[in-house]
Write a structure and sequence with these properties.
This protein is mostly helical. 73% of the residues lie in helices and 1% in strands. It has two domains: 46 residues; 221 residues, MetI-like fold (Orthogonal Bundle), CATH 1.10.3720.10. Strands 1-2 form a two-stranded antiparallel ribbon. Strand 1 and strand 2 form a beta hairpin. The longest helix has 54 residues.
Length: 312
């Protein structure tokens, strides 16, 4: 009994250690597999963000050491730079025009594809293709040629080239984004296929027509997917760069009508070599996108319907 009493605590400690060792080994293996992502996130995201935050408080021209100036870049941005506010207004106009048009077109095409009996896979791939190609500079340059004087739009409508008209150039940029509706379309299509057919049957029995079914069944049941697409496309729209750069040849013209925020940031940082000022602009953009996203999440409580919760 004495011998057993002496060795029992030791045996228990050994058993507990043996149980903890596999757990530590599993955690170690997990960190080994996660290490490429952690290293990449640290070196390629967190560290550059920290450097950018520091540079936003400096005067830095890419060639000389940064000189600390405190809040001067931010003060100049908000009080002394009219082009900055024009870029803000242009970006907001672009977001308000491009995002609703893109989501509306994506939803219409998704509804059409849902009712198709044949060729759904082909058309789904065909409509998704612009989302893969649209972000490239080559497509943006072709788009500029289409909307230039003597281009396709000029020949069809006889209105002249939109790319050279201050009142139409931003619309040409927005239409390029609208044309890339494939990604939200696929998400809408997946959401539509999850709506129970019984809901439409019950609405039909109650005398609801197609429009009433769309308003009373499709929209509420699809609202979480609509909200997801709205947040995603809004964030992307605030960061638009390639179409505006290509259509305006990097100048934001004509008359700053396509001077979106990121294009002006590029101009300040890499053309004028005011990298400290550009870094400050980048951080303001990050905060603005965060604020807009927070507002969308806050307002979603009033119109997004989750079937599992049974409430709006």
């Amino acid at each position: 009994m004495t011998t057993t009493g002496i060795h029992t605590p030791t045996a228990r400690r050994s058993a507990a250690t043996a149980q903890r060792r596999p757990r530590r080994e599993r955690q170690g293996a997990a960190w080994v597999f996660l290490s490429p992502w952690v290293l990449g996130a640290t070196v390629l995201t967190l560290l550059p963000m920290a450097v950018s935050l520091y540079l936003s408080f400096t005067d830095y021209d890419l060639f000389n050491p940064p000189h600390w100036v405190g809040l001067r870049n931010y003060v100049q941005m908000f009080t002394e730079d009219p082009r900055y506010w024009r870029s803000v207004l242009t970006t907001l106009t672009y977001v308000v025009v491009a995002v609703p048009l893109q989501l509306a077109l994506a939803l219409v095409v998704a509804l059409a594809l849902k009712g198709m009996k044949r060729g759904k896979g082909f058309y789904r791939s065909a409509f998704y293709a612009p989302s893969l190609l649209g972000a490239s500079m080559s497509v943006a340059l072709v788009w500029r040629a289409v909307f230039n004087d003597g281009g396709t739009v000029d020949h069809l409508l006889g209105t002249g080239g939109w790319a050279d008209k201050p009142g139409w150039a931003l619309l040409a940029v927005a239409l390029l984004t609208v044309w890339q509706f494939g990604a939200p379309m696929v998400i809408f299509l997946a959401g539509l296929q999850q709506i129970p057919a019984e809901l439409y049957e019950a609405a039909s029995v109650d005398g609801a027509g197609k429009w009433r079914q769309f308003v009373s069944v499709t929209v509420p049941m699809l609202s979480p997917v609509l909200f997801f697409n709205l947040v995603l496309q809004t964030i992307q729209a605030f960061q638009v760069f390639t179409p505006a750069f290509a259509i305006s040849a990097g100048k934001g013209g004509p008359a700053d009508s396509t001077l979106v925020y990121t294009l002006y940031l590029y101009d300040r940082g890499f053309v004028a070599s005011h990298m400290g000022y550009a870094s400050a602009m980048a951080w303001v953009l990050l905060l603005a996108i965060g604020a807009v996203t927070a507002v969308l999440f806050r307002t979603s409580r009033t119109w997004v319907f989750y079937a599992s919760e049974g409430e709006r």
